[in-house]
Amino acid sequence: MVEAQENNPVIPRTQRKQxxxxxxxDHLVGKSSLVxxxxxxxxxxxxxxxxxxxxxxxxYRNLLLNIYDCSGCPEYKSIxxxxxxxxxxxxVVFDVTNxxxxxxxxxxxxxxxxxxxxxxxxxxxxxxxxxxxxxxxTETEAxxxxxxxxxxxxxxxxxxxxxxxxxxxSIIEKFAG
Length: 177
Known about the structure:
By secondary structure, the chain is an alpha/beta fold.
């Protein structure tokens, strides 16, 4: 049974609108940590590398979020691509301390768009903002790039959970209506 949340009536899972969220990006940019920080904020256990795909189910307001966390390793490309169908939202994650992961953002978007047959929102996420002094991609640089692509951009720290809840709530609110 689904427990009622503050100011929210109990809605059975079968009556919730499902939103399929795909999370892609280079290996070791913090995709799994980002998902964990949103889905299991109290869990501070170490996160292992994703092998293929990891799946999380999160109930949020009247929505049932199916979150697919994809490995960034090249050897899992065919597995990853099999999940590119019927996606409502894509989060392309890069590491702000790794310029190559930012440069590869375009490649991830192209890989997804080449396989997916469905129009969906693509959001770019700069992770690891807690690594002060190690930053290689400025917020301004990322904002300019995403604005040219007409995409939203968020900066977060999955390790310290800064910006995670706000980012997900802002993005997911569009599907709640």
